[in-house]
Amino acid sequence: xxxxxxxxxxxxxxxxxxxxxxxxxxxxxxxxxxxxxxxxxxxxxxxxxxxxxxxxxxxxxxxxxxxxxxxxxxxxxxxxxxxxxxxxxxxxxxxxxxxxxxxxxxxxxxxxxxxxxxxxxxxxxxxxxxxxxxxxxxxxxxxxxx
Length: 146
Known about the structure:
Layout: H1 2-17, E1 28-32, E2 35-39, E3 43-51, E4 58-63, E5 77-79, E6 94-97, E7 106-110, E8 116-128, E9 131-145
């Protein structure tokens, strides 16, 4: 009897996971400005928009070129950094942000000393419990000059 009750609860839980999932075609994630020019060691304020989600999305900012290594497992995107990340670890710059939830996230790009074109990514994800229901990214191009 106990097993059948647990199984029934599990099946109800699974069937509920698909409810409220957003339509992927309705999702939009953008960053403003979409492109910017920053001097070496400069900063650029960024604001994002995540629309079409049926629940508050989880937010993640990172560098497209960022290395996913043990020293920088976050691809040079840092939520509430207690200390300033090293530009030695993040040679393409890094992004800091203060919240990992919401539809209007903000961040700051910190430019490296090396001129070049780099890309900041905003990723919005919707979960139902531990089930990922939807994910969408937006990208901004940052040109670093001397």
